[in-house]
Amino acid sequence: MHKLKLVLIGNGMAGVRALEELLKLNADLYEITVFGAEPHPNYNRIMLSPVLAGEQEFSDIVLNDLDWYRDHGISLHTGKRIVAIDRRNRKVVADDNTEASYDRLLLATGSTPFIPPLPGNDLQCVIGYRDIGDTQLMLDTALTHQHAVVVGGGLLGLEAANGLTLRGMQVTVIHKGQWLLDRQLDERAGKQLQTALERRGIRFRLGTPPKQLRGNKGGRVCAVDFNDGTSVAADLVVMAAGIRPNIQLAERAGLACNGGILVNDTLQTFDPRIYAIGECVSHRGIAYGLVAPLFEQAKVCANHLARLGYQRYLGSVTPTKLKVTGIDLFSVGDFMGAEGTESITLNDPSSGVYKKLVLKADRLVGVCLYGDTADNNWYLQLISEARSIGHLRQHLMFGRPDPDDVMQQTKAVA
Fold it and tell me: How far apart are the first and last CA of the chain?
């Protein structure tokens, strides 16, 4: 039987997960070609932080080794960046002039680090934190230099700061917000997190964005300057100030983009032969940067590539977790508490536990946990399924109750 040709641009977690799902549904439908800009097989990008911290090796985070591609008859091109999509002739062209034709094209080009437009941002050892190459540079620098600055007090920035500290560097985190993880935690939880990280030796400059990066005579960064005249020594600057969907290739091909490659609920672009998933897409106005939504997209996309065509992606509820050993935090939903909500809080400084539950109209709509996250999956389920929690209200703060206790209480109220 003549096979259709499927080309995947982007050898990352989202794209390859779509291939895995597709192979489960119909392994014989396509002749598959994969292009990846990095010289590596598919690896777990979210585990780069444990690698930096010394808890994992690079070899431990490989998801699909070269044998996997070979065993499934997939033609893999590593270290090749696609520079053009010819939609009329249905082919893609790589930077070394390699070409591949397609009947279906899947874009999973991911995202790129946002580098703030600061003077000196092009100096040596000013990097983002997205791939194995960035991680290796940090590991190498930690062997020979002392001072590191991380710009950005979000999840990725704090994981980088923790890892570099464990590697023996003196780390300062610069964050424009008034508390850490100000998009993922409320102020109280953010302050508790800062205290815990300060105990590990990490320093912070909050609410004071940098003025410029200063270099030495050799063109390498050596300091970060602030508007108040102070400065911080920096042999390495890690930019962790957010990401931007990687849409340049799609835009050059004439695909509709607005904060990401626009896709419908089947992850199809405006060109019916081209699909897109992952951090590069905008679905219903949202671009997701966490792995769980990307895997949900991959499953739906594979369903349609396999010509089954009955699944829809309707969006995701995205929780927050920090990959720093010994620090447990979790947030999801409207944890700040919008108008019309009420909050239940538990704060126990002696044990380092803080919990905040936000309710609206007999529903749990937001959660912020620090120090005790044992029931995070249960809270996430309650929010995702919009369950009524009236009969659980007395138990809610203390986690999932015993079903018999709930039943007895319900009968007593009746």
Answer: 66
